[in-house]
Structures are given as structure tokens and as C-alpha cells.
């Protein structure tokens, strides 16, 4: 049975994205990496933490509107 090692760190994932000439954000997301700034903000800002907990249950349309309001480019750009 294969033994799974520790997942790569954020720096390793970023370097891989550079070597592979691919989207860094996509690779970080696929690796399940959450920026430390996000965790830190959620620890000190309860409204922000509540919003993060709500995100998994919003509809695709709500997510598109939120992304548009925040001026986040679509993943395919």
C-alpha cells in the first residue's frame, strides 16, 4: 500500500507553477492551500469568518456576482 507523504508547502506549489508555466492560484487551490492572511483575518474579524463559512453554500450565480463586484477575473483568463 503506498504511503502518502506530507503535501507540498505553498512555496513549493508556487515554484511548480512557475516551472510548469501555469496559473499559480489554480495550482494553490488544487493543492488545498489557504493563504495565511485569510486565516489570520478570520481569527480577528468575526464578520469575515462568518462570510467564509457561508461561501460553500452560495449558488453559482451568487458567486459570479460576488466575483464581479470584487473585480476577480474569471478562472479561464
Brief write-up:
It is built from five helices and no strands. The chain is mainly α and 77 residues long.
What are the key terms here?
0% strand, 77 residues, single chain, 60% helix, 5 helices
Give helix % range: 55-70%
Distance between the termini: 40 Å
Low-confidence stretches: none
The average pLDDT is 89
Number of helices: 5
| DSSP E strands, number | 0
The shape, in one word, is globular
* Rg over alpha carbons: 15 Å
Label the structural class: mainly alpha
Secondary-structure element order, N to C = HHHHH
Count of distinct structural domains: 1
Relative strand content: under 5%
What topology emerges from the helices and strands here?
Elements: H1 10-20, H2 24-30, H3 36-44, H4 46-54, H5 60-69
Architecture overview:
The structure is a single chain. Helices cover 60% and strands 0% of the residues. It has 77 residues and is an all-alpha fold. It has one domain (10-69).
